[in-house]
Amino acid sequence: MTFDMELLAVVTRRSDLFTAREAYATGTSPKMLHRAHRAGQCRQVLRGIYSTMPEPGRREERLRELTMAMMLSNDNAAATGRSAAAMYEWPLFGVNFKRAQGVWLNDNATRSNSSLIIRRPLVPMGVDDVDGWPVARPEWALIDLARDAGIVPGVVAMDAALHAGMVTCAAVEESLDQLRGSHRLNRARRMIDLADSARESAGESRLGIILQQAGFEVESQFALHRFWSGRRAFADFRINGTRVLIEFDGLTKYRGDEGAEALAQEKAREDELRSQGWVFVRVVWSDLAHPQDIIGRVRRALEMAHRTPSAL
Fold this sequence. Notes:
Layout: H1 5-13, E1 17-19, H2 20-25, H3 30-38, E2 43-46, E3 49-51, H4 59-73, E4 77-79, H5 81-88, E5 100-104, E6 111-112, E7 116-119, E8 127-130, E9 133-136, H6 138-149, H7 151-163, H8 169-177, H9 185-194, H10 202-213, E10 218-225, E11 232-239, E12 244-249, H11 256-275, E13 279-284, H12 291-307
């Protein structure tokens, strides 16, 4: 089977997605479409929705594709919650990547199956256009994400949205006020309390939450002066009023030749700051599954910093 050029034009506008009805309108019969599917020329994303591309590798990309398929197969549906986060390309953690989440823009009743859920909104919400797709405005998307998936997934996404200047805490609070009396709003309120626009990755967000919930007062992206080089340095976190710095090391930070150079520069920076009396706690992604261990290391670092005289 060879796809009609008219259909390919539709696919190009739709991120390689097309409906069975669009294929039939270009002269493709159901049997031809079935054969194309079996031959690997197209792939079914949802019932009646196909893609001409291989399945995306990353789960966030697969959720984005599933979300677009949901909207393509359901007129008057917009992405919200985790699906909106995928459309905005915010980092996602602790969500159901296999089920798209939407909201009706009319009075349709809730539609739910294993691949999607589309609810009627409690109050009318604003919608943005994201690459031609209707997506709940960031403040509404974040509230739905926190209510559905929990505080930590909400903070991870909200930190990214704040950092990118896509939303403000005030806008989220204003939208939240319109939902008074609704269930699970405490999750969204706590999300706002814990959010921090200075954090630059999902790992930093999760680490910041662990520190905050343990009762530590922290400052993100703390600026330091390096006396030897005369340069400024930034630490991911500093425990307020102390000489304890906490750094999060991501998965790809030190990979390859550039990573080796970055590691050498990082070691020189850390050696210089240690000589000035700063105490470091380094956290990697796997550590985040053991928050009590992190808390214990921070407390030991605080004790060490108390005993270590400052070089200043």
